[in-house]
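Put briefly, the fold is written as integer tokens. The lines below illustrate.
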Amino acid sequence: MRPLPIPCPPRPHRRAALVAMLAAAALGAQAVWAASSAADLASRSNEALQRLTAKVPAAKALAKDAKAVLVFPKVTKAGLGIGGQYGEGALIQGGKAVAFYSTAGASYGLQAGAQTFGYAMFFMNDGALAQLGKNEGFEVGVGPSVVVLDEGKAKTATTTTMKNDIYAFVFGQKGLMAGVGVQGNKITKIDPK
């Protein structure tokens, strides 16, 4: 008795499925490799925040009034049609890391390449900070208003015009991918060893 042939999807669908599997595998591997000790993650997050506030006057001014700052010192983004990004960071209050989080997101469309970047979210009021503590995690762009600024735009921003709940500063972009987005990223509390 001859085995029945397994139908294969049309070629474009196989390619998309393969790319999706590779992107998921890369993000899964990144999650394992990125896992840091709490002390290391706190140190890298504090250093990244210090570099950002030293370089960008608006970030320095907001840091003085922020209830807390969530810093992801390194986020890796990769994709070929379908992509994703992952990173880990610390919530800093009063100069100390008080909790740890991961950020992850997926995207599709015209994209190819890989890059790394960091971002810091300045929580300007207690209501916005409370959203971060929800059990199901925090999704950027859902709930409190989030204004995303890259290093160039942030240099021209002033605190007199900044009245939103959360400000996210993107910094340290390196790589061959155009554009960095944090909208739609899921932020989840983690427990590094």
About this structure: Residues 19 and 54 are 40 Å apart (CA to CA).
